[in-house]
Amino acid sequence: MSNIVLQLSSDVQNRVKTYYASSIIERNAPGVVFAAKLPDTAITVYKSGKVMFQGSGATREASRWGEVNAVSSQTAAKTTSNQPIKTKGDTLPENFATYSVLGSDETGTGDYFGPVTVAAVYVPKDKIELIYELGVKDSKMLNDQIMLKIAPDIMAVCPYSILTLRNDKYNAIQAKGYSQGKIKAMLHNQALKHVLAKIEPEKPEYILIDQFAERNIYYNHIKNEKEIVRENVLFSTKAEQLHVAVAAASILARYAFLKEMDRLSKSVGVNLQKGASGKVDEMAARIWLEHGEEKLKSISKWHFANTEKARKLLNKKK
Ligand code: MG
């Protein structure tokens, strides 16, 4: 099956919608503004202006609206340079980028404000090309605006799970003695479990976790969980450069983080600073003064050193 994605102007998008109006179908997927189905081609128009053509007639239909480039099969080469990436962790099978993989990644762990989020995404081999076409690549090469735009497209195309661990819950379990490593491991295990349940009876050829702890430590963290995902699990650092499933997971985790940061920012009337710098201390002190300790606690990772620094700043202000 062939997948082609074109980025079309709103003018051309409107012509697309009119042209396929008689074949319109209902599709309640996120980011989708129009969908139509011909006997051999599915046409999907996304809010982002991307239009996707899927099926054996994809080339024919797509070429009515834009230039269809021959798509290279060397997908891995698009995210990786010619130089081998130095990673730690498992040695991956050759041509790993071409396998059906369930990948997971997290974000927010180093930010004083906001949640920890973990996402897992399943990209079967027949969707790898499409995910690249949607613009998914190493999230370090993408800015927040682009990730907010791409995330709904990923969610429309691939089975996924996103977990947002809000600050109140984070602080509660952290106070019980859970390390960040344990919290992350539990969330990764859960997100992977959710996606495996969604795609059943299909199974990924491999699961790749962006490594934050070595295998033994990871499994030690989750040894008391009811269900532990172990089958075909690989660990590697820089995993988002090794398979597009992890790159996609990283984008969804970031998306969820940004959405929650947005919500929290509105609740205190300032744009919350990311990271854990001195700027964060200043902002925390101000929020403490204006909204009180409980409010600050409810939007932050309370055990970070920033809390004590903010307390000192606050005492100076008083
Ligand atoms: Mg990571």
Write up this protein.
Strand 8, helix 8 and strand 9 form a beta-alpha-beta unit. This protein folds into two domains: 72 residues, TATA-Binding Protein, CATH 3.30.310.10; 168 residues, Ribonuclease H-like superfamily/Ribonuclease H (Nucleotidyltransferase, domain 5, 2-Layer Sandwich). 43% of the residues lie in helices and 16% in strands. The chain is built from twelve helices and nine strands. The strands form two sheets. It has a five-stranded mixed beta sheet, with helices on both faces. The chain has a four-stranded antiparallel beta sheet with strand order 1-4-3-2. It has 318 residues and is α+β, with helices and mostly antiparallel strands. Bound molecules: magnesium ion (MG). Magnesium ion binds next to strand 5.
